[in-house]
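Take a look at the protein record below and flag anything odd:
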Amino acid sequence: FLMRGNAILLQRRALGKYHTPGLWANTCCTHPHWGESPAACAERRLREELGITGVAPRLAGQVEYRADMGGGMTEHEVVDIFVAEAPTDIAVAPNPDEVMAVDWVGLPALMADLAADPGRFTPWLRIYLRDHRDLLFGAGEVS
């Protein structure tokens, strides 16, 4: 989760993705290489998916989730969650094979959008925001 002040950077997954295409998700997802540290993976995936460099992700914690991805696919993962603060002038250059759009949004607006139309968001983002909001954003609400 990349933060810029009180806003969270979300990505809309590219339509060519094999699952959940076109849905809004967290900033990026890690896919570690064998032997790669979680922190190095977080930095690599920010660069690969969004062209973002020069931020310092910090490990917020680890969560396990199980989600119905649709089409008979279930995802059951243990995920290291990273949070980083972005400078106000950060350059974002989405890789079109991964990301079709990005948006900076405050948590209250995101929660309202999620309540109004949960189908626009990936199952894992819905789980993170429902079950792990304090881990991600602390006890206070991001506005």
Notes: The first strand starts at residue 2 and ends at 4.
